[in-house]
Structure formats: C-alpha cells, structure tokens
Amino acid sequence: MTTTPKPSATTPDTKIYERRESTVRSYSRSMPRQFNRAQGVWMHDSEGGRYLDFLSGCSSLNYGHNHPVLKQALVDYIASDGVTHALDLHTDAKARFLSTLEDVILKPRSLNYRAMFTGPTGTNAVEAAIKLARKVTGREMVVAFTNGFHGMTLGALACTGNAGKRGGAGVPLGHVSHEPYDGYYGDEVDTADLLEQRLEDPSSGLDAPAAFLVETVQGEGGLNAASPEWLRKIAALAKKHGALMIVDDIQAGCGRTGGFFSFEDMGFTPDIVTLAKSLSGMGLPFALTLLRPELDVWKPGEHNGTFRGNNHAFVTATAAMREFWADPKFAGDIARRGRILEQRLERMAKRHGLSTRGRGMMRGINVGSGDVAEKITGTCFAEGLIIETSGAHDEIVKVLAPLVIDDDTFQAGLDILEEAIAETIAPVDASGTTSGKSDRKLGLAA
Ligand SMILES: *Cc1c(COP(=O)(O)O)cnc(C)c1O
Q: What Pfam families is this protein classified in (predicted)?
C-alpha cells in the first residue's frame, strides 16, 4: 500500500470551497486535500492518501485523533442521553470534570484555583482573564509581549503582536503595552530588567499594569521559550507592582511542554491561567480560565456565554486527565520524546547552519525565511507529513507531533522533515552535500 498522497491536488468537489467558503480560510490553502478520517497520529484524505499529523490542530490534539478511551467515554455518554447543552447548569459531567481537575491536576501540584468556564474558544478564556485582571486591579493597561499570540477577539487581539492579525480589527487596539519577550534583543539583554526599569521610572510613560499576559513558549510567535529565571522575574515584578501574572497556557499547556501546565517546577505560580486547545483531549471546543480564589470577584453572569462548559468536552477532558495524567509516567514519556525531537532538530540545524527553538514537544527550526519554510512544509506534505510554520515571518518550521506518537513513527516523520530541509537548504560544509540525505528510506511504512 502506498502511503504518499496521489499527485492531483484537488477533487472536483473542492470547487465548492472557492464558491461558498470565505477567503479567510487558511490552512486548507497549503494542504488542499479533503480529509475524511483521522485516527491516532494519522489523517486520511478522500483519495486514499495518508498523512502523519505533526500539526495536531495547533496542539489541540495532543493525545492524537479519536483516542479510543476518550471516544468510548463520549460515545457512552451520548448513548445514555447525557446532557449535551445546559448553559452553566450543574451536570454530572461538570461535577466529574471539576472533581477530576481537583484530584488529578490541582492537588498533586499544590495549586489552588477556581475554574471559570468561558465560551469554548481560547480567545474567550483570554478575554475573561484580562477582564478579571482589570476588574480586580481597577487598572486598564495590560503588559503583553512581542510575538505573543492570544486570540482574535478584540481584547485578546490587542494583546497579540502580529500586525497581519491586528490589521483585521478595524478599530484601534489599545490598553496594552507590548514589551520585549525574553531574548528579544539577543542573549545579552535581560528584557525583564528593562521592564523593571520602565515600571520603576515614574517618567517612563508606562502606566501601572493590571496584568502581565505571557506564554512560556510562544506557539504562534516562533516557539520562543522563556527561561524559568525570566518568568520568575516577571512574576516577581507583577507582584511588586500590583499586577496579576496571567500565563496563557492554551498552546503550551496540556502536556505540550512536558507537564500539564507549562510553568510547573519553575518556582512561580500564576494568578490566572488560561487553557483551551488540548483541554478536551479530543479536539472539542472547550476553554477554561483558572483563577486564584481571592480573585473571584465576578458577579453572577458578568462574563457569560451560551456555550460555557461544553458537556461533551467535560466528558472527554475527564477521560483524558484519568488516562494520561493520573500516572506520572506520561510526563516522563513526553520528556523522552522531547529529547528525541531536540536531538533530531539540533542535528538538522547543525548541518545547515540553522537554529532551533522551543521546549519539550513544542519545538521548531528557524529556516531563515517564510518562503524557505513554505517550500519545506510543502515538500513534507507531498511526502505525507502535515507540518506548519510559526514566527513573525513564518520562518520557523514547527513540530507539534501528537504527544502519544510511538518512537519509530516519530523518527520516520522527522526523517521526512530532515530530507525536505536537505532538499531545500544547502549544508554549511560543502563536503557534507550528501550527508544531508537521511539514511532512512523516505516515506512511511504502512
Ligand atoms: C490558539 C491560541 C489562543 C486562541 O485560541 P482560540 O481557540 O483560537 O481562540 C490563545 N492563546 C494561545 C497561546 C494560543 O495558542
């Protein structure tokens, strides 16, 4: 059985997308296939092509597609006429989710958070977080960071750095100061010190902030990973200046960087944490804002939404916490696979004079430009590997493989990436021309 996709890029049916789907569509442009089935680490298209998924719904599918345990839990729940929609009424599914969150996630980490169910997308969790910070502190300004990505609704978009995304707003995006993220001016400059200087200078023009909103690893902004020291400094600065520390863990959380939370074992505790993407475990829409109980000053319904708490997602998220997070083994597996990824990317980087980014199973390689990155991801796709780019100029090829991928398949997918890079970029050492070729056979075993 051939596993690489057939050459024709479109089926007659795809005309419907040009006719009826808005031009705002994006991923479907670089991967113009029609997908009809997905299981584990694989996606299948309507023409029999099989693709290894190194995008994982931008880290919404950390446990792979249709994980059998999660799927069964959902099938059983639906078959028993479990409540699908109930606004924010109490349901069995919500009670089980909250108890499991408490027992499996919060208590073992000595974390004390209340869960606020927002509308089911990440941007909603961010809106809730910054609204709450403004309400609690009575301040307007939020400090966000260069290359940060926090969502598409106006409040979260104001905190997002990317000009292309910001341009869609149509109104001024204000009340946010974008400060340099860790490493923005290179290794020599500690940007936390710069921020401290600005905060302490009454004439810097920086208003007292309600919150610092930060990703520990910047998912869309180029896989920049902040150091634990920098994050601790930012957390300390927040405390000192009466601002709240919000970690946007929508992409870096749920195991992507190793632990359930990306900030575990870093020596600080955020005041507020946002989660979405892989929280449901199955790709169902589900978002959560976690807040310290003392900050819970909301009036009933003050931030609401029709789809607060998705009961189907409660069920799959509960199953995911039990399946993966009740046993520390899973975090160990992620760490081991993260090291494989690090070594492989380092090898590619060394061969071609490139650099790598990221942490855990959230890493990428800087190939220099968006055009080069697009060539590489296009070659990968033609070889049956779904992989995307990240960064200010889309210059980072990012690997977001499912966390549950077995080692052989993982290596085979990385072989495709390595080969695609070797085909696109010359090796630094001329004598290494042929060493760019992988010693594994290109293509994936059936
Ligand atoms: C994806 C993402 C968001 C927005 O989530 P949506 O579900 O797309 O609204 C916010 N923050 C981060 C860090 C993200 O990666």
A: Aminotran_3
